[in-house]
Structures are given as structure tokens and as C-alpha cells.
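== Fold encoding ==
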Amino acid sequence: MGKVTKPGKQPINASVSAYWNAVRPDGAADWQLRAQIAFLFPEGKPKAPAPPQ
């Protein structure tokens, strides 16, 4: 599950995932939990070229 949000002025992409390991070596975990946060730095739309004169 993930979401792009903007707390304050900085947009972020946050997600959390859970995995169950069906096949695993002896001593390995039964499941995993992954949390991820990515800070986004949008640059805006590119400017249109100037019309020919």
C-alpha cells in the first residue's frame, strides 16, 4: 500500500509492503515487512518554445 502526499511543502511517496516467504532456507524468516519513503523534487512543466519571429 502506498500514497503520494504533501505534508507541508515537501511532497513524499510513502509505502508499506508485507511479504510471506513460501519457499525459504532453514533459519530464514517466515515473512518480511518493507517500509519506504521517497522525497520528491518536482521540477514543473517544461516551458514551451518561443514562437518563430
